[in-house]
Write a structure and sequence with these properties.
This protein is an alpha/beta fold. The protein is built from 9 helices and 15 strands. The strands form 3 sheets. A 7-stranded mixed β-sheet has the order 11-10-9-12-13-14-15. A 6-stranded parallel β-sheet has the order 2-1-5-6-7-8, sandwiched between helices. α1 crosses α8. The protein is globular.
């Protein structure tokens, strides 16, 4: 590919290198330095003039450091006369700050999007944003991918004839239903109430899970409090097996260890949108790569092709499955 430059911040250089390997282009070097007053400085060490520049940087811990680093990378690319600047942001952590649910509260999801626009970003490539409205916070075009295809390919290795995909809450039920259609499964959801960032209550699971193979599907797992609470409710219905899946495996506060210690959890599946430190890995963890999907999206953006066409075949599969089964997936009223 010609006239393209890909740079990585310090958040997840391994993913950036894998994307470049699929694209067949080199990963251009970036120099990050820190002044004595603790300010950061970024230098993009390859030509950007009139080129299509892609900056790979998920917002992971330390989020604020990586955010400022990303903004400085954008400013450096703009100052170097880049033809177009696309931020490849597999995980947008500020997406969770998407609503005013208390007086005088900040909307970080919108503010950070505005900061990117001020820094000169022309386009954003994101994956599995926390909620659909976050897309509207950005004043520039956003290509929004999801990892359903990668997760479905993994779970299709199993017998799915008695499988139910369970969303931890009703807010994520639409995504869980879409994934369930992909693999020909039923769908259920937890009735969740959140009291604090790490304190939730799930009063019931709405749907059929008794004696079935359950896949708990969430967009991200941070402290794991929601999933652990859901597991307690699921056990009351005696499912045949339990697997846990998410796109963003943040696994803060020893969440991965606590989930792995659950004897009835057979597997924990996530993608590599964010790095999972090797020292946290367990025998139950499976990490799927989304680098091929990101690379294909980058190629399409660069060539002016449709990114949404990546999901056309997937939607066709879902429609075909719906016609052949002729089964409506509804949420029955809780007993």
């Amino acid at each position: 590919m010609r006239d393209i430059s890909v740079f990585s911040g310090s958040a997840h250089p391994e993913l950036a290198a894998e994307v470049c390997a699929h694209l067949g282009v080199p990963l251009s070097p970036t120099r990050l330095s820190r002044f004595a007053n603790d300010c950061l400085e970024v230098q993009l060490q390859a030509n950007c003039r009139e080129r299509d520049v892609f900056l790979v940087q998920p917002l992971v811990r330390p989020v604020q450091e990586h955010l400022v680093e990303l903004l400085l990378m954008c400013d450096a690319a703009r100052g170097a006369s880049a033809g177009r600047i696309t931020v490849v942001m597999p995980h947008y952590s500020y997406a969770r700050s998407d609503k005013k649910d208390a007086p005088r509260i900040s909307l970080g999801g919108r503010l950070v999007a505005d900061l990117m626009a001020a820094a000169g970003v022309h386009r954003v490539l994101a994956m599995t944003l926390h909620s659909p409205q976050v897309h509207g916070f950005f004043s520039m075009p956003v290509d929004h991918l999801h990892a359903h295809r990668e997760l479905a390919a993994h779970f299709r290795r199993y017998d799915l004839t008695r499988t139910t995909v369970v969303s931890p809450d009703l807010g994520n039920a639409k995504e869980a239903a879409a994934f369930a259609r992909m693999i020909g499964a039923q769908v259920a959801a937890g009735a969740k109430q959140r009291f604090a960032d790490d304190r939730v209550s799930i009063s019931a699971v709405i749907g059929e899970v008794a004696g079935r193979d359950v896949i708990v599907l969430d967009d991200e797992i941070a402290k794991g409090s929601t999933v652990l609470e859901l597991l307690d409710r699921l056990r009351e219905s005696r499912p045949r097996s339990i697997r846990v899946a998410c796109t963003h495996g943040l696994f803060a506060a020893a969440a991965l260890k606590r989930l792995s210690e659950q004897p009835d959890v057979l597997e924990i599946v996530c993608t590599n949108t964010v790095p999972v430190p090797v020292e946290q890995h367990t025998d139950k963890l499976r990490i799927l790569s989304i680098a091929p999907a990101l690379a294909e999206a980058v190629r399409r953006i660069h060539n002016g092709e449709s990114v949404s066409a990546l999901f056309d075949a997937e939607r066709g599969e879902q429609r075909s499955a719906g016609r052949s089964e002729r089964v409506e997936q509804r949420f029955p009223a809780p007993s």
